């Protein structure tokens, strides 16, 4: 039984007509629901003050540790409306566990799994009307996060911390997602090093990715592809906000091993489903040279990215300092589209949930 997050309901919700207009075209990350979840941690009291309140700005002292040393972590998950009106989460326990691992790496206090889930679920119940109707690819994107609020500019783990959850109705992350995206292979920037924060879902990793994302856009690409070395050599790691998967002509589904990359829930889902699609799941390093050669000789037939926001997004081409090539014919691969549809079908209740991944909220 999770902890209660008592609801202090807003007296000025977004008017129904305005909410309907937002839900008809939500975009990604631009609109927010009426409420937020919060809880506070101090060494003396542990986690306390759990509540759901009207969405409002935080008041932070200018010396709050998060503003100086980026002591912050987050998660991303979605609430899906099924055809019968019920609302479900997909493998939220995995997000709760990863939140604990991220907290350990960033020296934040651990939030018990049941508190993580209670904050997420109570917020969804309070803002149920914000969960988009079933039938499309819309969902309610839920963003749990934790950050150091203590007013202190010495460098040590903060002794006052906030857990919060906000929610945002969402359409596809990449407007061109289903038709495929192109990736810029950065020779200048890497994402993570052994022993660094690569496996943690911390804001700092995403701040560090922005310069590479600008570089990608300047080269006409949608996102960046990181290698584990600079200089345009080395092994493929992950894309800016997604894990990477390759399909080979010998029927393997290959994805880089864990270590410095994010332990993606969708990545893990794809590995678990591969067999059903006649693919052998393989976690191993893939070098840029192998990708280039495989794309040229046809032994790499499909590439896609996996993430909560991006679901399964076909990758149709790669560019770098001295190359520019397509995967296959530069259109989404058959296995990619089939896997994508199957994951969405499970999430929206259209396919049997054989693995017990769905958790009912409403
Ligand atoms: C997610 O897929 O939930 C992510 O974390 C990507 C996000 C940074 C937009």
Q: What secondary-structure arrangement, pairings included, does this model have?
A:
Elements: H1 16-24, E1 35-42, E2 46-54, H2 65-69, E3 72-74, E4 77-81, E5 87-90, H3 92-105, H4 113-126, E6 139-148, E7 161-170, E8 181-185, H5 203-218, E9 223-227, E10 236-239, E11 243-248, E12 252-255, H6 265-273, E13 280-283, H7 288-297, E14 300-307, E15 311-320, E16 323-326, H8 334-347, E17 358-360
Parallel strand pairs: 8-9, 8-15, 12-13
Antiparallel strand pairs: 1-2, 1-7, 3-6, 4-5, 4-6, 5-17, 6-7, 9-10, 11-12, 11-14, 14-15, 15-16
Helix pairs in contact: 3-4
Bound molecules: 2-OXO-4-methylpentanoic acid.
What would you note in describing this structure?
Helix content is 25%, strand content 28%. The protein has helices at residues 16-24, 65-69, 92-105, 113-126, 203-218, 265-273, 288-297, 334-347; strands at 35-42, 46-54, 72-74, 77-81, 87-90, 139-148, 161-170, 181-185, 223-227, 236-239, 243-248, 252-255, 280-283, 300-307, 311-320, 323-326, 358-360. Helix 3 packs across helix 4. The chain is α+β, with helices and mostly antiparallel strands and 362 residues long. Helix 6 links the parallel strand 12 and strand 13. The chain has eight helices and 17 strands. It is globular and about 60 Å long. The chain has two domains: 16-170, Aminotransferase class 4, branched-chain amino acid transferase, N-terminal domain (D-amino Acid Aminotransferase, Chain A, domain 1, 2-Layer Sandwich), CATH 3.30.470; 181-347, D-amino Acid Aminotransferase, subunit A, domain 2 (D-amino Acid Aminotransferase, Chain A, domain 2, Alpha-Beta Barrel). Strands 8, 9, 10, 11, 12, 13, 14, 15 and 16 form a nine-stranded mixed sheet that branches. It binds 2-OXO-4-methylpentanoic acid. 2-OXO-4-methylpentanoic acid binds next to loops.
């Amino acid at each position: 039984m999770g902890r209660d997050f008592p609801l202090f309901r807003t007296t000025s919700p977004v008017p129904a007509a305005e909410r309907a207009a937002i839900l008809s075209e939500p975009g990604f990350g631009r609109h927010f629901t009426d409420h937020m979840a919060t809880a506070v941690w101090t060494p003396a009291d542990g986690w306390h003050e759990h509540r759901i309140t009207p969405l409002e700005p935080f008041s932070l002292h200018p010396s709050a540790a998060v503003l100086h040393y980026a002591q912050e972590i987050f998660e991303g998950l979605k609430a899906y409306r099924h055809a019968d009106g019920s609302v479900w989460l997909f493998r939220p326990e995995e997000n709760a566990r990863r939140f604990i691992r991220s907290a350990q790496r960033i020296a934040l206090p651990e939030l018990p799994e049941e508190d993580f889930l209670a904050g997420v679920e109570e917020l969804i119940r309070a803002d149920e009307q914000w969960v988009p109707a079933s039938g499309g690819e819309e969902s309610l994107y839920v963003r749990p996060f934790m950050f150091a609020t203590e007013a202190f500019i010495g460098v040590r783990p903060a002794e006052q911390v906030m857990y919060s959850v906000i929610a945002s109705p969402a359409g596809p992350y990449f407007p061109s997602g289903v038709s495929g995206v192109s990736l810029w292979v950065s020779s200048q920037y890497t994402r993570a090093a052994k022993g660094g924060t690569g496996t943690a879902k911390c804001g700092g990793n995403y701040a560090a990715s922005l310069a590479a994302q600008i570089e990608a856009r300047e080269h006409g690409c949608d996102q960046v592809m990181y290698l584990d070395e600079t200089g345009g050599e080395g092994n493929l790691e992950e894309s800016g906000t997604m894990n990477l998967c390759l399909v080979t002509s010998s029927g393997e589904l290959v994805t880089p091993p864990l270590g410095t990359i994010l332990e993606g829930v969708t990545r893990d889902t794809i590995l678990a489903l591969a067999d059903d699609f006649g693919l052998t799941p393989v976690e191993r390093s893939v070098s840029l040279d192998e990708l280039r050669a495989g794309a040229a000789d046809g032994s790499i037939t499909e590439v896609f990215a996996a993430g909560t926001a991006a679901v399964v997004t076909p990758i149709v081409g790669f560019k770098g300092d001295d190359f520019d090539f397509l995967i296959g014919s530069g259109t989404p691969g058959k296995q990619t589209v089939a896997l994508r549809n199957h994951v969405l079908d499970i999430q929206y209740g259209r396919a049997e949930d054989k693995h017990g991944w769905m958790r009912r909220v409403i």
